[in-house]
UniProtKB/TrEMBL annotation:
Residues 219-366 form the Peptidase M20 dimerisation domain. This is Dipeptidase. One of its GO terms (molecular function) is metal ion binding. It comes from Galbitalea soli. Residues 1-20 are annotated as: Disordered. Residues 1-15 have a biased composition (Polar residues). Keywords: Hydrolase, Metal-binding, Protease.
Length: 472
């Protein structure tokens, strides 16, 4: 977007900036190699996937952090999920106290990944890192093993230039279950409070405006996901016997789900809130190309396109358990389960949004169909306070590293642990950065990282560390 791409006024000069630039450049092949090794570990954090792989991924990250040689403690830690006694996935935690009144910065990313889906939908094997042109393909190559390696590579460059004897306090938290809703984070936070305490927190898990323009994420939507089971019959029967006189569960589910949206595709659930947000210009043409909208298919919703993505709710049906086509006999289906994934606008607590969706579904259940709700997960939205000095330093570091001023963006996605963290540390400044771009296709087949973005993200973070170290 040329209208948004503003050249940086003049290259602000971070102390030691040129040396950092050299060190980041020289370290890039090693960072790509280490990233490739991480991508080879299929660390899917969801139930039903091998937890030993998430453990192996945590061990690999721990070795990378230890290899920096600048931390007092590096450990693998996990916490129980609520009061269940079941432990969440392993995270890597490292810390080094500040000296001489310098600030402490916490670097966050996650080493778990989404399931790969069907291998046949990928052009290369999902866990075999594959370089094509400027992009490295593989599950987690962008989301968020690139975030993990951005921290490692920035710290390597920082150490090379500043030596081991610096005053900046450092903490590293590489989570192992972000893609599963950070379900043990509340307890993890209680148990590791001291190690997570910081003046500023870099959350390297978001997007950039495009591959040449950086973004600082200032708004995140929340999420509500759950499984909805719709039942109408005690057992299945021949559709010729009773079809037309009793509702099957598929029919009831289709009618019920259809009530969730207006004719223009806006969410039609009372009690789901939206906010007003000024958004950069973004044309329908750009939406069509970035989202791969097919010719002749219309966008949905109303208002500015980016406000639909950042400031309004959405409801998506992401899965269905019903007989597959090979078993599609002429039968009335007694019960259907769907997975529903909703995005919540900044400002609304996720549990309040969940209650509104449940109330809507109960009020619209056709023919008295029975509804059951299970596997509920709620994550709160977040609005970043951008008034602090570290946000200014982060913006300046982006401009210096990319040669272009950053755009303030919202994201339609969610990073639920952020609001938990801020509830505990209200004074900490939150810097949501990242290494994705609109073509990264996180969660989808052919996920990839743009290596130019990776390079600039590492340099940005190295410059930011140097700016914080230079503070009196
Ligand atoms: N990195 C994403 C968040 C994100 C999404 C950043 C879109 C930029 C653009 C993160 O890993 C993620 O996918 N979060 C999940 C959270 C969910 C599992 C609770 C999401 O948004 O679906
Ligand atoms: Mn992520
Ligand atoms: Mn993700």
């Amino acid at each position: 977007m040329s209208s948004t791409q503003t050249p940086a006024p003049e290259p602000t000069s971070t102390p030691g900036g040129d040396a950092l630039r050299e060190a980041v450049h020289a370290g890039l092949p090693g960072a790509i190699a280490d990233l490739s090794s991480l991508v080879r570990i299929p660390s899917v954090s969801w139930d039903g996937f091998d937890p030993a792989q998430v453990r192996a991924s945590a061990e690999a990250v721990k070795a990378l952090v230890e290899g920096l040689g600048i931390f007092d403690t590096v450990s693998i830690a996990s916490a129980p999920i609520g009061d269940s006694g079941v432990h969440g996935q392993p995270a890597v935690l490292a810390s080094r106290p500040a000296r001489e009144g310098k600030p402490t910065i916490l670097l966050y990313a996650h080493h778990d990944v989404q399931p790969p889906g069907d291998d046949a939908d990928w052009d290369s094997s999902p866990f075999e890192p594959t370089l094509v042109g400027d992009r490295l393909y593989g599950r987690g190559a962008a989301d968020d093993k690139a975030g993990v390696m951005t921290h490692i590579a920035a710290l390597r460059a920082f150490r090379e230039v500043h030596g081991e004897d610096f005053g900046l306090g450092l903490a590293v938290f590489i989570e192992g279950e972000e893609e599963f809703g950070s379900r043990s984070f509340a307890r993890f936070l209680v148990e590791n409070r001291d190690a997570l305490q910081a003046d500023a927190i870099v959350v390297a898990d978001s997007d950039n405006w495009n591959t040449t323009t950086p973004a600082l994420t200032v708004a995140l939507r929340g999420n509500v996901t759950f499984a909805l089971t719709v039942s109408t019959l005690g057992h299945a029967s021949h559709s010729g016997m009773f079809g037309g006189a009793v509702p099957d569960a598929m029919m009831a589910t289709i009618l019920l789900l259809a009530s969730l949206w207006d004719a223009d595709g806006s969410v039609a659930v009372d009690g789901l809130r939206s906010i007003e947000m000024a958004t950069p210009e973004y044309t329908e043409e750009l939406l069509r190309s970035e989202a791969a909208l097919l010719d002749g298919v219309a966008p949905i919703g109303t208002g500015e396109i980016l406000s639909r993505l950042w400031a309004k709710p959405s409801v998506t049906v992401t899965g269905i358990n019903a007989p597959s086509m090979v078993n599609a006999s002429n039968t009335l289906i007694p019960s259907v389960t769907v997975k529903i994934s909703a995005r919540i606008a900044p400002g609304q607590p996720a549990t309040e949004a969940y209650d509104a969706i449940v109330a809507h579904l109960r009020a619209h259940a056709p023919f008295g169909a029975r509804l059951a709700f299970t596997d509920v997960d709620c994550g709160n939205p977040f609005l970043v306070d951008t008034s602090g000095p570290s946000v200014a330093d982060a913006r300046a570091a982006m401009a210096e590293a990319w040669g272009v001023e950053p755009v303030d963006t919202g994201i339609g996605g969610s990073i639920p642990f952020v609001s938990d963290l801020v509830a505990t540390f209200p004074a900490a400044e939150i810097l949501v950065t990242g290494v994705e771009d609109p073509d990264s296709r996180a969660h989808s087949p052919n996920e990839s990282l743009h290596l130019g973005v990776f390079h600039r993200a590492i340099l940005t973070e190295a410059l930011l560390l140097a700016k914080l170290e230079a503070r009196a």
